[in-house]
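As a warm-up, study this chain.
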Amino acid sequence: MSNEPATVTKSFVQFEQEHIMPIPENKRTGTNWSIFAIWVSLNMMPLAVVTGAVASGSYGLPVGWSILAIVAGNVIGAFGAALHASQGPHLGVPQMLQARAQFGYLGASLFALIAFIMFMGFFASILIVAKDSLAVVLPDFDGTLAIIIFAVIGVVLCVFGYDLLRKTMTWLSIIIGVAVAVSMIMFWAQPEVVTARDDAAFNAEGFFTMLAIGVVWQLAYAPYVSDYTRYLPKKSGPKTAFWSTYLGLMLSSVFVMSLGVLLGAANPDNPLSALGDYLGPIGLIVLLIFAVSSALINGVELYSAVMNGLTVLQSNFKVTVTTKVRVWTTIVSGGVATLIAIMGQGDFMANFEAFLTLLLYVLIPWSAINLVDYFIVHKGEYAIADMFMPDGGRYGKWNGVGLWSYAIGLAAQVPFMITPLFTGPMAEPLGFIDIAWLVGFAVTAIVYLVLVRTVGAKREGSVENSVADEA
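Now compare it with the structure written out below.
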């Protein structure tokens, strides 16, 4: 790594050098405030607003019930995401790369690929919503051109890497936070907005679906929270990473989605346009801020997509990860996601709701395995060097315990699933309340713990000696 540039400038920003490798202690420049700011700014975007609008707009829930469902879902989901984040300072590696300890060197690449696809989907989704925000302010501006411009901004930020992203998110969190706060105050001052839908009524399907959406919104961060908390000094400990992540994710999500609830009640068909309809020039300014901030925020989504893409390349194609490889991976990934956004901008809302639902089903078993393995089985003690060995070291190329546990947990959700393409046989008896994620988490956690205590105990030797050797 010595032949790579140390910095772009000494005073402005450091250029990403470590990529997917462990972060040395002398390069861990993160703070509890910077981590908090990253998660706050990530949620302060129109995509979160549109997600909140689903409760009052699509499901017709009253404002109060909508916000209650959103609060419950985000409180639960953020707890899981923050537990994943607490691993970062201790291990110093990206979140999904750590999956090599649970699924093997090659097995983990399957989950890195899933995470890569997920972040590409979020990158494309944010581009579409940013374009929609701009369209309300500048209706004659070409939508495809807007998507391309926003994508280029995100790609440039991602090319520079963590340090520029961290500094950008810190300032952005303040600017957007003020804009959202002003919007919320002005909307609550207009009672006709809260009572805009005469047909609004509580329904269990809508309430529990929104609760599940809140959970998946937070768990969608789980595959990359450690990508950023790994930059915290090891001495800061897990509590700093946990609370900075939990409060940043939960508070900002509830805040912005609640604004979405009000917009969905005011205009179910086009929630974002309600900002301009009800707030006039101020609403248009907020939409413009949303559009620009989304382009900046997207750099974070693409960064994590690239971290997972590099993990897949290293695992399966023996690619040596250098700055050149990371930069080209960033450019190609950004270009592909931009094409997806351009082609998928027509029926966005329906596609996005289905995307969120599928994410929940896929992520839940992985989350259960990771948390059980880290906090119960290994208690945070891993042989980091083995994670980078082509043969997987003590973790092997394929870890059957983790893979079978994941498959069983995924299968356990099928009878309870509710998707546009498939509805499980248990959905109707339960009133179409989605509890598949609860079943999946519980089954996966139990199965993994049982298998790792029996089959896994015979397969894997003690980690402590290797960890001691590394130290």
